[in-house]
Amino acid sequence: MRSDIHVCSDPEAAHDRPVYTLGDRCPECGAPAENGAPAPFDPTDRYGEYRRRARSDRPD
């Protein structure tokens, strides 16, 4: 899912709070803006268990 709302990619350095915009750049600091939507989650994902097992950063 892609959102039209973007958030400043550098919020800690330049802002006290997240800055949202519809453009590709932050209106306050000029930094690039990134997609503000969270990653999709599907509880009916058939292969989620296998994907979690295959992760390399998972302790054995």
From TrEMBL:
Record's keyword terms, sorted: Ribonucleoprotein, Ribosome biogenesis, rRNA processing
Compositional bias (Basic and acidic residues) spans? 43-60
Q: Where is this region: Disordered?
A: 29-60
Coiled coil residues, start to end: none
Superkingdom of this protein's organism: Archaea
Q: Which residues form the signal peptide?
A: none
Q: Which Gene3D superfamilies match?
A: H/ACA ribonucleoprotein complex, subunit Nop10
Query: What are the GO cellular component annotations?
Result: ribonucleoprotein complex
Q: Which GO terms describe its molecular function?
A: snoRNA binding
GO term, biological process aspect, one: pseudouridine synthesis
Q: What does the UniProt function comment say about this protein?
A: Involved in ribosome biogenesis; more specifically in 18S rRNA pseudouridylation and in cleavage of pre-rRNA.
What family does the entry list? Belongs to the NOP10 family.
Protein name from the UniProt record: Ribosome biogenesis protein Nop10
Organism of origin: Halorubrum halodurans
Q: Which gene encodes it?
A: nop10
